[in-house]
Structure formats: structure tokens, C-alpha cells
Specification:
single chain; 40% helix; 311 residues; two-stranded antiparallel ribbon; globular; 10 strands
Length: 311
């Protein structure tokens, strides 16, 4: 079955200040890369908005109401949620489509329409906690998708692997107290948001954090995945695997100090897909998180999508 590329034009309408790194040009760069003829077999899908009840599986009603009710205030000018996170007139709808894209990906994979999927969306999601948006993120897109797999399809064991350079504190928050949810993250430390220590292990060792010092590159991250993340993922035997695909660990990224290249993201993705083929019928959905150098982001996303297509 083909790989799906799921996005929506509304995701361009989330417009932080012009100097903000999480800008519409990020998504434009990714989608432009994926117009190359080598990606012609992708199934291209426009995502619907996520329903309210889907969001409430992850987020408190107050957070959802705050985001949706901020549309009116944002229509009169940008509003600032925290030091890094803004909303513009189109932000709420962009966030609804971003979460909806991961829901659509789950439905398509479970329904046999796609073999796997890449969600090219913004705003990103993995910092958004149950009670607060933060770190450029409004809704936690990946966690919303995970709960769709569990609650709609009855899957019990669900995993997220997060290779964004920043720790996904929001996804960890959603998974920490449920032994049937597995979260694994590699991330630079020290770095925002300051979470993701090895002793943060969840209720049943279902959280696995691996910190990387500044300057770590291909050798270091592949060793961490080979020795730790991948064996733990396979031992967990998930029924569905999600990838938080932040490409800001690339050596060209301006917000961090790791030394990865496109091939590293492709390798990690291929290894995850190989496990998925063995344990969960190949069910993999990836969603865009960070990545702020436009050229590196585009090439890295293309490398990952290529690995998904070859799985």
C-alpha cells in the first residue's frame, strides 16, 4: 500500500511574528520538496479538522476552549500565549487541521487505505501538555492520534518515538501514567524545555529518555537507537507506532547543536518501520514537529518520506 501525505492549506495561516522560527515557510519548504517526481506515488490528502471530543481525549476542556475562543482576540492582532507561542487569526483552525491530519492518518492506516503516512502540518504539537500549550505548540497532534488509535480501534499498546532535538514534554505528560502507552525520546540536553532525564520513566518503565550532549552526531544517535530505543520499542510490541519527526537535530539547524544529517533521519525511520513490519502490520504514522533551517528541513523530511515509501 502507498504512503499518504496528509496536510491542509489552513496550516499556512498560523502566523507568528515575522522573526519567529516556526513560520509558514517551513511547511512550504517541506511540501515543495515532496513535489519532486520521486514522490509521485504519494497519496495526497487534505485533512479535516479534529473534532472536539477527539481533542478532549488528550487536553483539558479549559485548554481547548482557550485555543478556540482565542480566535476572536487573535483576529484583532496576534496574541502571545507564552514566551515562545503565539496565535494569529488563523492559528486555531490551523491547529485543528494539524491534529485532524494525524486522526485521518490513523483512520487511513487502520482502514487499509494507506500503508503508512506522513503528516506535513503546523503548528507542531509535542510540547503541548494536557493543561497548557507551549513551545510553539497548541494541540498535541501525535497524542491526539494515539488516542484515536486506542479509543476508536481498541488498540491497547501504542508507541511514540520522538527524535526532535527538544524533549517532547507534552507527549510524555500524556503517556506517563499509562503502562500501555510507550514514549521514547532522544534529545539534546541541556536545551528547552529542560525535561527528559533518564529517571523520568513512567508508571511502568514505559517512558525512555536518552539525552545527547551538544555536538553528538550520526555515530552517537545510531548507537543510542541500536542499543536502547529500538530494542525497547520491539520488546514493548506496540500495535501502532507514531513518530514525532522533528528535524531540528540537523547540523544546520539554528536552534540547537546536534550534528545529524538527512541520512540519520532516514535510517531511524527505516529501523522503526522494520520493527513495525514485525510487530504491528507496518502501522506507522509520522507527524512534523520541529526543524528551522528551511533547506535542511526540506531535505530531511524528504529523506524520511522516502524511507516510509520504501517500508
Amino acid at each position: 500500500m502507498a504512503t499518504a501525505l496528509i496536510s491542509h492549506p489552513e496550516c499556512f495561516r498560523h502566523e507568528p511574528p515575522d522573526s519567529h522560527p516556526e513560520r509558514p515557510a517551513r511547511l512550504r519548504a517541506v511540501l515543495s520538496e515532496l513535489e519532486h517526481p520521486r514522490f509521485s506515488s504519494l497519496v495526497r490528502v487534505n485533512a479535516e479538522k479534529a473534532d472536539l471530543d477527539v481533542l478532549l481525549r488528550v487536553h483539558a476542556p479549559g485548554l481547548v476552549e482557550t485555543i478556540l475562543e482565542s480566535r476572536d482576540a487573535a483576529s484583532r492582532g496576534r496574541i502571545q500565549i507564552d514566551a515562545d507561542t503565539y496565535m494569529s487569526a488563523g492559528s486555531a483552525d490551523a491547529a485543528l487541521h494539524a491534529a485532524g491530519a494525524v486522526v485521518e492518518a490513523v483512520d487511513g492506516v487502520m482502514g487499509g487505505k494507506y500503508g503508512n503516512a506522513f503528516c506535513a502540518v503546523r503548528p507542531p504539537g509535542h510540547h503541548a501538555e494536557r493543561l497548557r500549550p507551549m513551545g510553539f505548540c497548541l494541540f498535541n497532534n501525535i497524542a491526539v492520534g494515539a488516542m484515536q488509535a486506542r479509543d476508536k480501534y481498541g488498540l491497547q499498546r501504542i508507541a511514540v518515538v520522538d527524535f526532535d532535538v527538544h524533549h517532547g514534554n507534552g507527549t510524555q505528560d500524556a503517556f506517563f501514567r499509562d503502562a500501555n502507552l510507550f514514549y521514547a525520546s532522544t534529545h539534546q540536553m541541556p536545551l528547552y524545555p529542560g525535561t527528559g532525564y533518564e529517571n523520568e520513566r513512567g508508571v511502568s518503565n514505559n517512558v525512555l529518555n536518552r539525552r545527547l550532549p551538544p555536538g553528538s552526531g550520526s555515530v552517537e544517535i545510531r548507537a543510542v537507537y541500536s542499543d536502547s530505543i529500538l530494542p525497547a520499542l520491539e520488546a514493548f510490541a506496540p500495535q501502532f507506532i507514531f513518530i514525532s519527526a522533528g528535524f531540528d537535530a540537523h547540523r544546520a539547524d539554528p536552534l540547537a547543536n546536534l550534528d545529524l544529517a538527512e541520512d540519520d533521519f532516514a535510517w531511524i525511520t527505516a529501523e522503526i518501520c522494520a520493527i513495525a513490519a514485525r510487530v504491528c502490520e507496518g502501522r506507522v504514522v509520522s507527524a512534523l514537529e520541529g526543524g528551522y533551517d528551511l533547506d535542511a528541513l526540506a531535505r530531511s523530511a524528504g529523506a524520511q518520506v522516502g524511507a516510509l515509501m520504501e517500508a
